[in-house]
């Protein structure tokens, strides 16, 4: 799968929920998916956590975000936040 320029690969895109934003310009995003167990044929939820770069520190815990694969930014960061799909509700229902 190449773009119109012919030499770039299509970047992987994932959607997940921010579970930690305690680091500067970094969030931890948990991506869930369901797979069928090969023996028991039961649907099982699989989860994986990705560290993603958040340049403007806009993400909060509970936000649903879209992350895209990028060049290695540090030892564990190979993803960056593309956009916030759904913001988390404020505690107490305040505006």
UniProtKB/TrEMBL annotation:
Keywords: Ribonucleoprotein, Ribosomal protein, RNA-binding, rRNA-binding. PROSITE patterns: RIBOSOMAL_S17 (PS00056). One of its GO terms (biological process) is translation. One of its GO terms (molecular function) is rRNA binding. It comes from the Bacteria. It holds the Pfam family Ribosomal_S17. GO terms for cellular component: cytosolic small ribosomal subunit. One of the primary rRNA binding proteins, it binds specifically to the 5'-end of 16S ribosomal RNA. Part of the 30S ribosomal subunit. Belongs to the universal ribosomal protein uS17 family. This is Small ribosomal subunit protein uS17. The gene is rpsQ.
């Amino acid at each position: 799968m190449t773009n119109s320029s012919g030499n770039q690969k299509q970047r992987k895109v994932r959607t997940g929920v921010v579970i930690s934003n305690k680091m500067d310009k970094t969030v931890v995003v948990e991506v869930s998916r369901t797979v069928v167990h090969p023996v028991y044929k039961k649907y099982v939820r699989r989860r994986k956590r990705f560290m993603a770069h958040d340049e403007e520190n806009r993400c909060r815990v509970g936000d649903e975000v879209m992350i895209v694969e990028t060049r290695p930014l540090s030892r564990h960061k190979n993803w960056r936040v593309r956009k916030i799909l759904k913001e988390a509700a404020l505690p107490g229902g305040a505006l």
